[in-house]
Design brief:
This protein has about 600 residues and is α/β, with parallel strands linked by helices. It has 4 domains: about 100 residues, no CATH class; about 120 residues, Immunoglobulin-like; about 70 residues, Peptidase S8 propeptide/proteinase inhibitor I9 (Alpha-Beta Plaits, 2-Layer Sandwich), CATH 3.30.70; about 290 residues, 3-Layer(aba) Sandwich (Rossmann fold), CATH 3.40.50. Strands 10, 25, 26, 27, 28, 29, 30 and 31 form an 8-stranded mixed beta sheet that branches. Strands 15, 16, 17, 18, 19, 20, 21 and 22 form an 8-stranded mixed beta sheet that branches. Helix 5 runs parallel beside helix 8 and helix 6 runs parallel beside helix 7. The longest helix is centred in the last third of the chain and has 17 residues. The site of one calcium ion (CA) has 9 residues, from loops.
Amino acid sequence: MIPRFSYGKKTLFLFLFFVFVFYLPGCDSINNDNYMLFVEVEGEGLVQISPERTRYNEGTEVELKAVTATDGQWYFSHWSGDVVANEEEISFVIEKDVVVVAHFKLKDGAALEGNLRIQHTWPNSPNFSANQNNSFPSGEITGFEREFESGELIIQMMPFSSTEDRANVARALGGKIKGEIRELEIILLKVPGDTFEKLAVVNNLPEVINAQPNYIYQSQNSIPNDPKFSYQWHYPLIRLPQAWEKTTGSGNINIAVLDTGVDGKHPDLDGVVQGYNFIDGNEDTMDYHGHGTHVAGTIMASTNNDEGVSGAMWQGQIVPVKVLGDNGGGSTWSVAQGILYASGLLEDVPNPNPAQVINMSLGGRERDDALENAVRKARENGTILVAAAGNNNEEKLSYPAAFKDVISVGSVAYTSSGAPTRAKYSNYGNDLDIVAPGGGSGKGVLSTYFSGSGDSKTYEYAYMVGTSMATPHVSGVIGLMLASGMPEGEIRETLHKTAMDLGKEGFDPEFGYGLINANWAVNEVDSVKIIVGERDGNTINARAEKTIPLGEKYFEFPEIVPGEYRVYAWIDIEGNGIIEPGDYIAESDWVNFEPGKKVSVELILKEY
Ligand SMILES: [Ca+2]
Ligand SMILES: [Ca+2]
Ligand SMILES: [Ca+2]
Ligand SMILES: [Ca+2]
């Protein structure tokens, strides 16, 4: 048989391509004694494998031969892995799965080291900035950028236009033809200057029927049509609109709201299902206070319904569990039962809608064994518990937030520029998990509310401030993470890893792991690509490439083929290999990599 070659610029695995299963009459079907061979190439070179199979029977002798590339820059160094050797040709007998790495080295290579930093854009994101100016809702969503490709026009030519006609149009606009779709008789023109000014000019040209910008299309429904969405500064701050491109929730996610009840009659709260009232011992979970209704709206107000506000989740169910009375207060007795009920663990009060997530925008200042035991049982049952850090501005979290099984949420305030700050009231400490927008400095979180009571109740929307308002952002994002298929056991660590660092570098008691990043959390962003190469439009041609974990700040490449390249760091959110809005990217100046020399670069990743 002709041996196949494996060739790698960086790393290449040979996986099985086909699995042949032979059923021979009278023969005992499948042979279990077969193993796989993985050959990895480091540097540039070829490995010749003989015989090359997808699987090898035990006892098969395999020969590997390292062949250097013809350009003469690389030489073969050694084998590592399950076979350690220096000869170019090796052979061995397969007795198990085998991993072998062929190391090729550069004769006269350059080296690279670098440092990496992530710089978020505050207060929001370049892609989704909400209107910050009005103190109370009315008006339109503003501030969206890049709705069309700047400097590009699509021209509808007259029928049967000639090459010369098209060239005339390009010349008249000082532009260049980038492409053509003959079936539609349109051309794509790259033009300098203001795109809209050019548009006015081009429509007067005799060769042209009409012209339009090259509009940008993105996945739909990420911007809800709720009229008050533009005042919910707290959503773009935590990158919720970008997260909604991945998921807006799922009907089978239940979030229990342990609070003053929830008014499911609010016109902007659809997803409220049967819960329980542990204050009065009945099924009436109506809210007469307002707090629980506000919290529920942040988690899951009806969204994209042309009414009121948006919620962090658009689909799902709110399970109202009334553990706080109409004055806003409750007790160990009511909250402990509420936790067990929400998790589906209370025998006396069966829960038709057990929740995956329990939101507790409540807290007390004393440690409480009964409450801690309820928390532990719910957590052991796989329920995720989220609670407010408390509003006392002290270095001590309230309970239940302070319990280790509960994800604690502190609050950041709105700032018109620069990074958000810890809200003055927000408790902090070494057991703080994360922060979310709770408002402060005159700017609160906007959600569903009411005034009055009984028949004279008026449904409205209100700004409220506190760690109570921060907490439902986290519960809602957790709901999105679950809806996107993340196992509950990975939620907390993913929240920590993907949070946007604030204050002192890394974890700190004021901000915990940082501000929740809904987009990175639902997309499970965990790594940064480092690429040496050259950008080509929306992709990068790599000469050398590696991946480092998110949070790692140092990288190095011991071997770079000498030449001129740029160095890139790239968080490719959806992992689709395309640089696009929402991705984070850093690009160095041109770097001259000289033989035998090491280059240092500093990269600052910014949202594209
Ligand atoms: Ca709405
Ligand atoms: Ca805790
Ligand atoms: Ca920090
Ligand atoms: Ca991308």
